């Protein structure tokens, strides 16, 4: 897992979620690798593909979205984050691919949310044939707000993990720079001592 293991622990609250509206996950994308995910979508069902590179390299990745007829309906090159909403014209399995093939040494941690259709309503309210009562309307509004809060928390955790990784990288660079400076000071001091000692060393005269 390498250096991303602590971040995977931090992002464990995101985990891997399969729900009626698609898939949401955080995954590692090794260097010089490509990962594809498949999602069945019915015709005319509005869907959204959202992604963000959390850690790794320059925080960029190549993304393509293909239809069941192998038509590329969305493509991004070396992008950190984006969101694409589309309405399929044909039913079938759509393929979203994330490529890190342009990188030869840095692997990435990528967040993806492939949402299909609208959020499911509360149980019992989806097939409501009469006017909803005030309590049912309030429950539906609370449900909608909670879903919004969940989305905000997810993106907040992503930004937090990204900031943590950058801070860890900066801390590591400062540590190594401090070690190099310390070694340079020690070597310089030792060299100065030898030079000064040589100045005050008695030399025997030869005749």
Question: Which features does this protein show?
Answer:
four-stranded antiparallel β-sheet; 2 helices; 207 residues; 32% strand; alpha+beta
Largest sheet: 5 strands, antiparallel
The overall average pLDDT, rounded, is: 79
- Molecular shape: elongated
- Cross-sheet strand order for the largest sheet: 1-2-9-4-7
Number of helices: 2
The rounded distance between the terminal residues' Cα atoms is 73 Å
Quaternary structure of the protein:
single chain
Binned strand content: 25-35%
The run of helices and strands is HEEEEEEEEEH
Going by helix content, strand content and strand pairing, the class is alpha+beta
Structure description:
The chain has 207 residues and is an alpha+beta fold. The protein contains 2 helices and 9 strands. Strands 1-2-9-4-7 form a 5-stranded antiparallel β-sheet. Strands 3-8-5-6 form a 4-stranded antiparallel β-sheet, with no helix packed on it. A hairpin with a 5-residue loop joins strand 5 and strand 6 (72-79). It starts with a helix and ends in an 8-residue tail after the last helix. The model is unreliable at 1-20 (pLDDT under 50).
In terms of topology, how is this protein built?
Elements (H helix, E strand, L loop, with lengths): L4 H6 L5 E4 L2 E8 L4 E8 L5 E9 L5 E6 L5 E8 L1 E6 L5 E8 L8 E9 L17 H66 L8
Antiparallel strand pairs: 1-2, 2-9, 3-8, 4-7, 4-9, 5-6, 5-8
What's this, in brief?
Helices cover 35% and strands 32% of the residues. The chain contains two helices and nine strands.
């Amino acid at each position: 897992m390498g250096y991303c293991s602590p971040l995977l622990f931090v992002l464990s609250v995101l985990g891997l979620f399969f729900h009626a509206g698609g898939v949401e996950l955080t995954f590692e994308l090794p260097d010089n690798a490509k990962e594809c995910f498949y999602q069945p979508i019915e015709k005319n069902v509005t869907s959204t593909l959202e992604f963000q590179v959390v850690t790794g390299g320059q925080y960029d990745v190549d993304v393509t979205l293909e239809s069941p007829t192998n038509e590329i309906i969305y493509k991004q090159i070396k992008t950190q984050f984006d969101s694409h909403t589309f309405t399929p014209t044909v039913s079938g399995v759509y393929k979203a691919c994330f490529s890190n093939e342009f990188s030869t040494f840095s692997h990435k941690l990528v967040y993806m949310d492939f949402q299909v259709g609208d959020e499911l309503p509360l149980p019992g309210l989806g097939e409501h044939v009469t006017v909803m009562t005030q309590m049912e309307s309030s429950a539906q509004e609370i449900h909608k707000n909670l879903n919004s809060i969940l989305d905000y928390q997810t993106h907040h955790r992503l930004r937090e993990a990204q900031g943590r990784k950058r801070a860890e990288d900066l801390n590591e660079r400062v540590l190594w720079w401090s070690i190099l400076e310390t070694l340079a000071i020690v070597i310089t001091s030792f060299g100065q001592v030898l030079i000064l000692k040589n100045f005050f060393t008695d030399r025997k005269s030869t005749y």
